[in-house]
Amino acid sequence: MKKKVLVISLLLLVISVGNVFAAGLGNIQNWYTNSSEIGRWGTTPKVWYGTLDSSMTQLTLDGHVTHARSQWNNAGVPNSYTSDFNSSHIRVRSGTYNSIKKIEVGIQTGDTGLTKRSPATEFSESYWYYQGKYPKSGKKIGGPVYVYLVTGNRTAAAYKNTTTHELGHALGYFGHSSNSKTVMYGAATEITTLTSNDKVHLNQIQ
Ligand SMILES: [Zn+2]
């Protein structure tokens, strides 16, 4: 009896390992980042957001996060909202540089936003092959991931650009695009709508 259970559990292990590789292996056609890594979530990540201080109202933050979430959802990179911090996967906070610095020492002067992934909650999944040649490392993100939006004298479009950009990092877009017209470009702009490059890079492995 005991032996039979062991055989079954070994079989389950083989099946699940097989699935992981089957889901990860593939040929991808688009690569718009300076990173050789790309990430995805094993489950639809739930996004929570809140303000660290009064430098941005909850209502304004709500507008920026809702914009960013719908941009990626419409691009085929799913994410949902939750009001429950503890069960959330992506935690977005707005605040002044000083407020953020108190809880995230990695923030630098001049940053408009920062996404803090935890390598401990990511594991290497397998490789995708860009145009059949160059292996790109796939990572499955477990979370939680922390996103910070730095407040200052910025336009609504600039905040939406930063929020959409940082959420992209949290959803698995590692590194930056070299195209200044894209949201995932490495510098802040006022572009608030994802371009086809932004979309196809991340949604091709969803
Ligand atoms: Zn970035």
Describe it for me?
The protein has 206 residues and is α/β, with parallel strands linked by helices. The chain has one domain (34-203): Collagenase (Catalytic Domain) (3-Layer(aba) Sandwich), CATH 3.40.390. It is 34% helix and 24% strand. It has 5 helices and 9 strands, in the order H-E-E-E-H-E-E-H-E-E-E-E-H-H. It has helices at residues 2-24, 58-74, 97-103, 156-171, 196-203, and strands at 26-28, 37-41, 46-51, 80-81, 90-95, 113-116, 122-130, 134-141, 145-150. The chain has a 5-stranded mixed sheet. A 4-stranded mixed sheet has the order 1-7-8-2. The longest helix has 23 residues, at 2-24. It is globular. Mean pLDDT is 89; it is low at 1-24. Residues 165, 169, 176 line the site of zinc ion.
Task: List its salient traits.
four-stranded mixed sheet, disordered N terminus, binds zinc ion, 5 helices, 206 residues, five-stranded mixed sheet, 9 strands, Collagenase (Catalytic Domain), alpha/beta, 24% strand
